[in-house]
Amino acid sequence: MTAAEVETVYEALALGIDAAGGESELFLAKVALLLAREIGDPERAVALIESAGRHLGDRAAA
Amino acid sequence: MRPQGRAPTESLYFTYPHFDAPEGAARERLAADTRVAIVGAGPVGMVAALTLAREGVASVLLDNKATFNDGSRAICVSRSSFAILESLGAVAPFLDKALGWTMGRSFFRGTQILEFEMSDPASEKYRPMYNLQQQYIEQYLWDAVAREPLIETRWQSEVTGITDHPDAVELTVTDPQATYAFRADWVLACDGARSPIRRMKGLRLKGENYEGRYVIADIRSGHDYPTIRRALFDPACRPGGTVLVHKQPDDIWRIDYQLADDEDEAEALQEANVRASVAAVLADLGETGPWDLEWWSVYSANTLLLDEYRHGRTFFVGDSAHIVPIFGVRGLNNGLADGQNIGWKLGHVLTGRAGEDLLDSYSPERRGATLDVFANASKSARFMTPPTRGWTLMRDAALSLALDHPFAGGLANPRQMTPFTYAESPAVLPDDPAFTGGAGVGSALPDARVDGGFLSDRLGAGYTLICFDERLAEGVRSLPDAPDVVCLAPDSEAATVLAAGPQAAYLVRPDRHVAARWTTASAEAVRDALARVTFQSLPDNAAAGTVEA
């Protein structure tokens, strides 16, 4: 994907989260499952899920 | 604003000059007619006046203040603005003082997640960006204005009335001694975001206000860090907010920090609160040394502009025509480009080198540039100050991913200023589709190294033809009212940068934007193109084919 195409997806997700309101976590889980199925490669999907789990809530000491 | 006990222009490092209103013999000509009146002697008005002077046109420059604008304000000056300053013979002090930079670093929750480099090829004469306080920008432009006999500056002179007549504009001016009126053929309203001319003409800016307010504070500190733009997202000193840090000359640092939605603006602007906020940022940066507070202000992101920049014989130039968000540093840089654009066009018309219709290209060209700024700035603004939970979550996801996945860092690209391409303008010709690459019609001409110097050094003050064939060059030089001609070797760096074969040619405007280009040029084509882009009819003998390439 080009940078502009990445941006298009970024925008769609931001708008989707706002539209989902209180159900945004459910919305994002559904998005993840649908995209994983499109990849058609379960090992790759699981590796990406692990990658997304890194650096959550990191805050380096000042 | 400045710390308690210091006057509005009492700086730690800069001595603001004092300018008197016109006195003595200078008052005798106050009521005389003039060709061009420029209202506002800020950076935009001074660039417009200097550009007109370069065209050989005299102007009267009016300002209601007795000194420069207070505070450092706009600090990022782009490569394209340096090209403008060079064309005005004013670039030397800017190069001496300003800090050039090419790199930015982004931090997410205290960890550096991204480093970006702006394009800076060896073929370019100037760096992509320079940091310099606005009062130095005004000082150096003023030094050039003061040297210029074609510019008559009237300080402490406020325009209090404007009346349109069929062939002139009448301005009423009030200065400390008197109120008087004079007529100008043309008026350039360079009188800033709160433009009194705009108000007197009953015009309004239209557009949007974005979420997010920033306090911008300047401090003097011995902080040791290279000239690299730092963006701190969700830092410990300001959870959920964004902080920007820029180095300026004289050990001055610009710290911009976002206010939270629930923070009261008046309270945030109190000196004690500014000091506490700055101290927290410095602690995050690991800076423990002493520092002085110099100046601060508040800023909120607006995208506002006029529907039309030309109203009869009055043109709106710079902030009077548009207000843009700070992200991407386009306020000052686009204002300078406005001033240059109307300056050379009016200069060409008033010296008989272009038809009056050229003036109608100012508004579409520069309004187009503003709309382009808005498109980029709104994307930058929603990254820097996400307006909703969705944009915040996606921004944080991109920043968090950027550590392991470089593609996500691209979303944090600050989209710094690049010159706008006037592809749709009436003052350029359609592009030659046979080109692959190079600089398209309407775009700013890239630079290239030529014999130890640069291509830009060779350009004339008016239109210039760049070609690579001596026979074509001779044919164009023998045209009546010929443009300047630069003929370079077919294997030169310029030929590569411009994707030009041996028969190709570029016609470049006085503002260094491409007016026309051909993969196979002829003197006749150049002559016709020049007539069209300057809105002049062809000379009588042109149709008879007396000119051959």
UniProtKB/TrEMBL annotation, chain A:
Top-level division of the source organism's lineage: Bacteria
Native source species: Amaricoccus macauensis
Protein name: DUF2783 domain-containing protein
UniProtKB/TrEMBL annotation, chain B:
Keyword list, A-Z: Oxidoreductase
GO terms assigned for molecular function: 3-(3-hydroxyphenyl)propionate hydroxylase activity; FAD binding
Gene3D superfamilies linked: 3.30.70.2450, 3.40.30.120, FAD/NAD(P)-binding domain
EC number: 1.14.13.127
Domain of life, per lineage: Bacteria
Keyword Flavoprotein listed: no
Annotated FAD-binding domain residues: 33-370
UniProt-listed NCBIfam families: PRK08132.1
Name by which UniProt lists this protein: 3-(3-hydroxy-phenyl)propionate hydroxylase
Organism: Amaricoccus macauensis
